[in-house]
Specification:
Low-confidence stretches: 125-135
Bound molecules: zinc ion
Strand content: 5-15%
Helix content: 40-55%
Distance between the termini: 44 Å
Radius of gyration: 21 Å
Structural class: alpha+beta
Largest sheet: 4 strands, mixed
Shape: elongated
Amino acid sequence: MAKACIICAKIVPHGVPVEDDLVISGIRAIKQKLGIAKNNELVVCPACTEEYKKKRGEYEKKLVQHVVIASILLLVFILLPIFTKGFSLWAVVMGVVFAAGVMLLSVFSHCPRIAVGAQAKAEKPSAAKGKKGKK
Ligand SMILES: [Zn+2]
């Protein structure tokens, strides 16, 4: 199985493997259905480590923002009818749909987690020798 870098999209000899999450398995399932799956192992190559960290940081920030926006939307849709014309199931459904839509937007800037242990190994191959004193 070839390794493909998720940042530069090149086939690389080695890299830090990406952890499969819901979005990755979802995209893979869709690609397999469409018959365009390449079945590459997704990695971050050493040249792209910095770029990856930036992307991942941005994604995590965006994800938090989207969760906040989705929660506010949901709250507004649930609470507003209660204060005006009474509880409305329709409004709750609309709120859930909008909130899900906002969460779905974060998929476009999706950046998966990489295996943390593997990352440390790839960055500092010989740093594990340092002694750690007991606190
Ligand atoms: Zn790369």
